[in-house]
Amino acid sequence: xxxxxxxxxxxxxxxxxxxxxxxxxxxxxxxxxxxxxxxxxxxxxxxxxxxxxxxxxxxxxxxxxxxxxxxxxxxxxxxxxxxxxxxxxxxxxxxxxxxxxxxxxxxxxxxxxxxxxxxxxxxxxxxxxxxxxxxxxxxxxxxxxxxxxxxxxxxxxxxxxxxxxxxxxxxxxxxxxxxxxxxxxxxxxxxxxxxxxxxxxxxxxxxxxxxxxxxxxxxxxxxxxxxxxxxxxxxxxxxxxxxxxxxxxxxxxxxxxxxxxxxxxxxxxxxxxxxxxxxxxxxxxxxxxxxxxxxxxxxxxxxxxxxxxxxxxxxxxxxxxxxxxxxxxxxxxxxxxxxxxxxxxxxxxxxxxxxxxxxxxxxxxxxxxxxxxxxxxxxxxxxxx
Length: 385
Hints:
FMN_hydac_DH_AS, two-stranded antiparallel sheet, flavoprotein, 16 helices
């Protein structure tokens, strides 16, 4: 066996044997492990985004937690989404004036102004966290001035989510959709989104079939979209003529599809594997972004590129932004935070903003908008770190 093959074999064995830390041990059990069943810890004791998952898991029924937590099959893609970020090292620069870093967090997404380069990704059934359901997400997003992408299979309807906006005329939301070949139903759905004030359509394309979700099936909380769906590039171009709203493609997992999306006129794409819930073995958004950077870097200049999946820390977001992503989505962390309602969602936003600013400053990034691949070591990644 060649030495390179032996090394790869060893790395694979080490990765398979190493325990998976879904929630890293930062002392939370020692400090708050004596909570009674069903009790959420005080919000002011939540330190980082993983704390929200710990709190949710301890305070909500196992079925509710499983609906958000589950992944496909053996959940290796779910695990990889979280672990991919640790395989790439930072290249911090020093002696840089970073004192104004917080003032550079603001960004635009399809021309709309937001306070930070991250958003709430589409995720269904917010009522599993809190009876206020998606109202907590939309109101928290408003208070934190970030984008909320509403899910089609939300507990609240498109119209109810619009009505939950504190200031309906000013808050920007996008509407995620699953579509099939029924043009009449699609036009009605698009019209509802437009009338409700949505500023873009987020077309999910990474779930052409049902997800093979073992954990979810044990608890009876499988996918809401279980049919085989007709999704083609020709169909996408047809959709673009059915609405005046920009139609974002969510679920790009290869450089080839990213290039094709640009050719088909996509105003934006989202690198995503559906949170590892559809196809076990699908790549993380970070791996796809790296593939695009290495093989077709022009894509980042030809369309807006967003990415979601596994982001839990400010440094995770910065790695995606460094490659050229315009903004980063988080799904599960905000769903867990919504156990506290809008206050929890706002706390999660504040945590993420603070971490992005701190980590950027410690990397020697003076302006978030000027972060670039030179701040990362993309070669010789440690696959079993």
